[in-house]
## 1
Amino acid sequence: MIKKQRTIPLRAQILRAMKRRVHPNHDKYEDLLMELGIKEAGIYGEQSLDYYLKLLPETDTPYYIFHDLRLPYRDSHFQIDTLILFSNFCLLLEVKYLRGIIYFDPKNNQLIQEVEDKPLKALQDPILQVSNQCFKLTSWLKHKNLPKAPCEKLVVLTNPKVIVKVLSSPSIVEKHVIKSPALSEKVIPLYKRNSTHYYDKKTLNKISRLLIKDHTPLQSSPIEQYKVRPIDIRTGVFCPNCSPHVVMGKIHGKWKCTTCSLISGDAYVETLKDYALLISSEITMRELKRFLRIEDKYIIRRLLKKLEIKGEGNTKSRTYNLTPLLIKT
Ligand SMILES: [Zn+2]
């Protein structure tokens, strides 16, 4: 049973909005596209693992799955891609979507990636990463006075095309690195081997509650990092059908794309979400006019009413809270 669903991280949502809205001639546009590309591959890889998680065998006792946890550890936090809590052990999955040829080198704590004719790249050793997470999770359990079950770890490679080579410690790589289709095959012996059951259903539910309570999403703004100013952000309702930057025109209560002729009644919702992600979750009537490129405040009020967005404050300084739009996604 999935206890914590995977969500699109806020930073990736902001980067997606930046890709649409920031002027492509901005100094950092290529950099932000590059970061987004890495993030999208990671998201795709994690989503593709869901199919194999569904194939996990039924066990005598229930198990819980948690995606994207970020938990406190001492003065900082640690992140877990996927945690599966069985009654007899914890299983941590470090999910990687990598291209090209990868060389595992646990002895030197590195992973080397070779993509086409590009220079070799040294990456963090994911086996070491997931081992550290095990250590920190065990310490978290202890800190919460919860029983400590053995912690098992796997690095799951989600790109079927990646070629795996091993430079050192082959037995460690064989034990801890798999491609997604091997997940079930690897989990069954782990379940059988750990014969002591530490967690009854009540304890599992307690751990589950505490994990979700302690989860702290990362708050980091790529807007500041890439030095994007409000003036760099394009306004207007974009056509969902055409590539970004095609602004739709408003006719008779709907939007029409002059390029592909698509007619949409709700294309403005994405525009408001972009505003909330990139500029502020609160918006004034003046800003609504500017960002939606609509002069008539009565039309804007109707659009807001459709979304059940109410104004706060008196007429002159009234602001509209766009947060509910983000929560819905
Ligand atoms: Zn279009």
## 2
Amino acid sequence: MVDKIKVENLSCYYDKKCALESLNISIVQNEILSIIGPANSGKTTFLRTLNRMNDFDKTYSRKGKVYLVGDNIFDMNMENLRKRVGMLFAMPIPLPMSIYENVVYAPKRLGLISKKSELETIVEQALKDASLWDEVKDRLDSSAMKISGGQQQRLCIARILAINPEVILFDEPCSGLDPISTAKVEESMIELKRKYTIVLVTNNVKQASRVSDRTAFFLMGKLVEIDKTDRLFVSPKEKQTEDYITGRFG
Ligand SMILES: Nc1ncnc2c1ncn2[C@@H]1O[C@H](COP(=O)(O)OP(=O)(O)O)[C@@H](O)[C@H]1O
Ligand SMILES: [Mg+2]
């Protein structure tokens, strides 16, 4: 098992308020690690720290280290980090342009490719990996705003895949989706872990139990417990974990 991300003693603050406290966690290559926990437990803060999205927030500060295969991400050039670590949000936000243009937007902007034939290969592969290709292959030129919410969310996944990252961060990616669209996104995540390392923040414990290899339970800025998903759900070590997964609080 190779550590893709290694977090050492990470603490995060907004002004003086601690949002994440002395976190130590490793994320293994080609796993889906779910992070569950009630609102305000620091899940989003953790994801936004992993691709340094919070660096622009003036109230935010942090201590500790995060390594991406040995490289300290806080010393890394931001554009390089964003190429290696992609992030998907709760609400799908496609760009107001065609499906095709959405997928090629980032690789073009980052200057990753120039030839049209290369772009076409990237679009097809990204849409296939996002489990969307069959549904849109005959209408790549139609507007991304006209497809369903579930399709838009998979399109947003394809946009991330097009830059070929190593790690993908998902922040409650299905919270706005119906059960059928949710199942499709989950299917796509399971496919994706063959090539990528995935961190999935979810407010849906059933989703964590369905898709992830390991699950971490966060509570009030602390990592309470992390284990193989089946073990964590069947025999949690901590009472707080048990209370949360059985719905006794949250
Ligand atoms: N931009 C922000 N400014 C100030 N406080 C924040 C900000 N974002 C989050 N927080 C606070 O940090 C804590 C953790 O929040 P968050 O990481 O969003 O938790 P979760 O995603 O688990 O709901 C909460 O107490 C929240 O109010
Ligand atoms: Mg959140």
## 3
Amino acid sequence: MGLQVAKHNKRNQRLHQHGCISDAVVMTGMVSMELVYIPLAAMVIFMILILVLFKKASPVSRTIQTRVDRVNRIVRESVVGVRVIRAFDNTSYEQKRSDDTFVAYADNVIHLNRIFAMFNPMVWAIMGITMVAVVWFGGYLVLQATTQIGSIMAVMQYTVIILMFLMMSAMVIVMVPRMIACLERISEVLDTAPEIADDREAVASPSVKGSKLIVFNDVSFSYQGAEEPVLRNLSFCCEAGKTTAIIGGTGSGKSTIAALMLRLYDIQEGQILVAGNDIRRMTQHDLRESISYVPQKAFLFSGTIAENLRTGKPDATDADLRQAVKIAQAEAFITTLEAGYQSPVAQGGSNFSGGQKQRLCIARALVKKAPIYIFDDSFSALDYQTDAALRSELKLAMKDACLIVVAQRISSIMDADQIIVLDNGSIAGIGRHEELLRDCSLYREIADSQVKREG
Ligand SMILES: Nc1ncnc2c1ncn2[C@@H]1O[C@H](COP(=O)(O)OP(=O)(O)OP(=O)(O)O)[C@@H](O)[C@H]1O
Ligand SMILES: [Mg+2]
């Protein structure tokens, strides 16, 4: 008997200190075996309610997540594209698009809160009914003289503790569907394996030497999910000390070739060799270290001009920067800036003109000093004079480098040692300007159209 009382007291103490639900149930049973069924029944009903809530709230929570994505996208587009929106006088359309997105999001959140709002009174109703049941049956048992009033009071206390536990856990559980939706999104991002990974047996630091610096062997490539290949059976080679130009209509695959050289995508067929090494067997670091790239869309980081120029070579000296800037024909405009090389660059380089940005991107690539340079339509925003001056200085300064120049203007590439004419992903002709004028009808067409336009 003494042992039982000690156990009872210990359990009671633990219950009040830590609040353990099983203790509360056991204590109720110890006080009255007849009344324990009431909180147990309440527990079952409560759990069913939580299950229903979980099932109803889960899909809504998930939709909320996709709506939040959409809201973010629309807000970003409206902010970044504000000039285009104003220029096209599209404000009312954009406003409607934003409104629709926000309303859809708000509808979802209201729906979810309605479900929770319904849940709340039900919880209180269950609590009330349970208490009434305890008092009712307890009173009946007292009248039958099978239990005492003190026991009813104790059972009521324990029932309150049990139901409070359940209510608290319900509060946490209703957060679970949203939590699961968020976790799924996070793990989706974390689990995404990079498509391009270094080969385990990649050749560490292969020397980028030899005359044939880039070789394409029967290369075909399609973007993921695309039906048609973008490039078909390309074979060509770019040599050190020579300029290879790539010309072709928009969407013919010129930028894709540049991206493949940098191994931003893996090819499906054929082989790309850089200095005799298959690029899939090289480490990405070594490959990209050997290539200096000027992207088609001039992109600058926020910071200063000098910081931007040092992107590819952080230890470049001031003299290196000056030399690159001189070749890139950017000297004149940088010297007119009050802070010169320390002038601030706004986000996305928005405080510079298109041509200035392009010249800074070219200078950035030149500072890096690599054996291979890729200029993806990098002279397009330059006037003819600047374009010509830049090309002649480039040729002089980069005598031993392999230059790959993607261009739309024939005048930018007619001096190239080799011109590749692309037609819808296939090579329509390879040769020098005069050879192509003679043998390649597509090149002739491009040349004729440009001569007519300029004439
Ligand atoms: N990331 C991508 N995902 C799917 N398709 C793409 C992607 N980038 C380009 N394409 C498609 O590949 C084709 C070639 O694009 P690419 O950018 O190489 O053309 P381009 O010759 O550089 O054109 P431009 O002269 O306009 O710069 C296009 O039809 C384009 O729609
Ligand atoms: Mg392009």
## 4
Amino acid sequence: MRYCKKCLQTDTRPGIKFLENDICPACNYHNQLKTVDWDSRKEYLKSIVEFGKRNNNSGYDCIIGVSGGKDSLRQALYVKEVLKMNPLLVCLSYPPEQLTQRGADNISNMINHGFDCVNIYPSPQIWRKLMRKGFFNFTNWAKSTELALFSSVPRLAIAYQIPLIWWGENAALQLGDLNVMGKDGSDGNNLKKMNTLGGGDYSWLLDREINKNKILQYLYPSNDRMEKANLRITFLGYFWKDWSLVDNGNFSTLRGLDIRSEKPWEIGDPLGITSLDEDWVTLNQMIKYLKYGFGRISDYVNEDIRLGRISREEGIELVKKYDGKCSEKYIKSFSKYIGISIDEFWDQVDKSVNLNLFSRVKKGVYKRKFKVGKGL
Ligand SMILES: [Zn+2]
């Protein structure tokens, strides 16, 4: 395991490839931003806006996938107020047992800024079964739900004949999952190659009880269907100089976003601005840490190092303290939801712990072998 020389990204992130000088793709992109010709990028953005307005078959110029969180609120307002477009928002909602009150309030806050929004609620029973399956097959409960989240938007875009789709962050540029990279940094038509989405493969969702008609909301449209519908998926983050967790968090909090009040060691998040609408992504971040050696706080720290807000040394201390942390209460509520005991939860996690990176003290207790910032 190696670390980027500039930030604290490890080369264990799926899809990542460091440059020859041990620099991660996200730091490389950040460096390039200094020399970007923003005027020509603005012109490019204009041409995309025109594409949306030209193909306004339904009355809506574009569609935006939203959750009501910090990124989506900022994007929605930008599209409406800066780009002067008429967007339709699409929100794939969590089932009642998973959605937090804060998540519901944030959706209300967002639409109260004057938006039309379609909410999609996949069947809670199937949702829960698939989550359980994702947890036992991949030790990643979000594998099916992310498929639903990312499929819902192009599906609706095709149904409503709205060819322009905005998403926010390009994971290839801003995180380093290079499989997502399209023909340029704004092109999101390769989104389904993202690690979690596995090319849109849904075969593992099927079994004797669950046939294809039960998982329609999880089916990512085929390339053929997307081409016929002339779909154009675009990352808005590519056009912003200041796309970051903190900037988006500040912007949206000032516009009514309700954020978390838990402590960093309960959620592995120093500012409480991520995963506002449910509580279990936090435990997935802990599992990610045990699989790859980096968790949620690494994403914050990496961004802050690049932006010069903290030094790499300060980052190392934060990562040591908080990465991979998750409150017991979320492990409890998650286990209860998918119908397993805490012991069974740790049995499964135990199988996925990367023993090259961690030594096993006992089930549920692991000690890192690597040095943060240095590697193995
Ligand atoms: Zn880096």
